[in-house]
Design goal:
With 452 residues, this protein is an alpha/beta fold. It has 13 helices and 25 strands. The chain is globular and about 60 Å long.
């Protein structure tokens, strides 16, 4: 699939975005381990999240899907069964790493395989702590990569300090800890997403906050079945928020978005760059805060993004790199070497595509130096099979002269079904004004807008 993108007219809209990808993965896994039926609404039916659903079904969990964004999960942790075949994780690292934790302490063997992209991503980061717990898990690929073979084992709780800041590592260890004897404690190297511990708490699993942000969990607990509504994905909203922020006078209101404070650091970056941002938490009933984000565009200026804020921005760095190209001055991204082991080498991909569009950029070992405000021009842009690269440059194309073609854009469906429809409404607000808004698309814009 190719996306053809033209310069956008003035942005003035209200939107909703699909359910949060990170929360969707975790909610369906923990619901599957519960003691009864759980209804999940707002679920993200993306390719990666559906891989997690299919994996749980392969493990004997009954999951109904009466609507695309609704799952009815019949939790039954004590009746997990051996899969009849290897479990395909596609290109979803979240699926593979979280399932590795879930499967490490089971009384049966399993094997996790992935697509070409996933099979190059490092798995030693989850293998090491799981082996310390007693797991019989090995990576069959070169350099500790997938496939992962997991044989039956009994686990013991450990105290583990991760050398990298990774919510996936933390989540894998906590899920393994549910099946381990005694107490398991995991400490991250920095502040990371806390969705797993919040979700465990919501399903009435006891966790303990310890020194230096460590999280402890006691084994052999069974989550209590509960219904849950998944908020909109703030990382998906980030693409449209940057589009509005970079357009002086642009205005965007995002409703029903997740506002977990481990996910909103990029709003602080946009404020540093000169955008006007307002967020309002409106609902905390189900632990994950949600509400409204409003942004008004202004001439952006460059900034430095580095250090301890990087783990909280890892998914937003591609679109923030585009924001840097649209800002005056220099934007520097450092300490982001983790971008090199994502769906693609995102540092190299960003540098390549920004240069294709006419931006001045220097590729660093651990980031980028972007000299902004060079006029962007349309062209043929490679997605490199990476959904966030494809979406980031679709937004860049809204500010470029001529038409831009995003190649191999099918990967967008991994995280944001409906992105193309939302993009089409950004480019053609009058044509779409009468349409009925759906999750993942823009609702009718307010006021009159100039059309190219």
């Amino acid at each position: 699939m190719e996306l053809r993108v033209k310069r956008a007219p003035r942005i003035d809209a209200e939107i909703t975005v699909p359910g949060d990808k990170s929360i969707s993965h975790r909610a369906v896994i923990i619901a599957a381990l519960s003691n009864g039926v759980c209804t999940l609404t707002g679920f993200l039916p993306s390719e990666t999240c559906m891989l997690t659903v299919q994996a749980l079904r392969a493990l004997g969990i009954k999951i109904e899907q009466p609507e695309p964004e609704m799952l009815i999960v019949h939790g039954n942790r004590r009746q997990l069964t051996a899969p009849r075949a290897e479990i395909n994780c596609g290109n979803s690292a979240t699926t593979m790493r979280l399932l590795a934790g879930l499967l490490a302490g089971q009384g049966f063997d399993s094997r996790l395989v992935g697509g070409a992209g996933l099979s190059t991503r490092p798995m030693d980061r989850v293998i090491t702590p799981l082996q310390q717990m007693g797991a019989n898990i090995v990576a069959e690929g070169p350099n500790n990569t997938a496939p992962l073979r997991i044989q039956r084992a009994q686990l013991d709780g450990i105290q583990y300090r991760s050398p990298i800041a990774s919510s996936q590592v933390k989540s894998a260890v906590l899920l393994a800890g549910l099946f381990a004897k005694g107490k398991t404690t995991v400490e991250d190297a920095g502040i990371t997403r806390n969705h797993t511990e919040l979700m465990l708490n919501y399903f009435l699993v006891r966790t303990v906050k310890e020194e230096r942000g460590a999280i402890g969990i006691f084994g052999e607990q069974v989550p209590e079945s509960r219904d849950f509504t998944i908020p909109g994905d703030i990382s998906s909203a980030a693409f449209w928020l940057v589009a509005a922020a970079a357009q002086p006078g642009g205005h965007l209101l995002v409703r029903h978005s997740g506002l977990n404070d481990t996910r909103t650091a990029f709003l602080g970056v946009l404020i540093r760059m000169g955008a006007q941002v307002r967020e309002a938490v409106e609902d905390v009933d189900q632990i994950e805060p949600r509400g409204t984000v409003e942004i008004t565009g202004a001439p952006l200026k460059g900034t430095v993004i580095q250090g301890r804020e990087i783990p909280q921005l890892i998914d937003e760095l591609p679109i923030l790199a585009v924001a840097g190209a649209l800002a005056s001055g220099t934007t520097i991204i450092r300490h982001a070497q983790e971008l090199r082991v994502k769906e693609t080498d995102r540092i190299a991909a960003l540098a390549h595509n920004l240069r294709v569009m006419g931006a001045q950029v220097i590729e660093l070992n651990d980031g980028l130096e972007i000299h902004g405000r060079s006029p962007l021009r349309g062209g043929r842009i490679a997605s490199f099979g990476d959904h966030r690269i494809a979406m980031a440059f679709a937004v860049a194309a809204l500010f470029a002269d001529g038409e831009t073609v995003i190649q191999d854009a099918d990967c967008i469906r991994e995280s944001y079904p409906g992105f193309e429809k939302a993009l089409d409404e950004i480019m053609n607000p009058k044509r779409m004004r009468a349409s009925t808004p759906v999750i993942g698309s823009l609702s009718p814009a307010r006021g009159e807008e100039d059309e190219e």
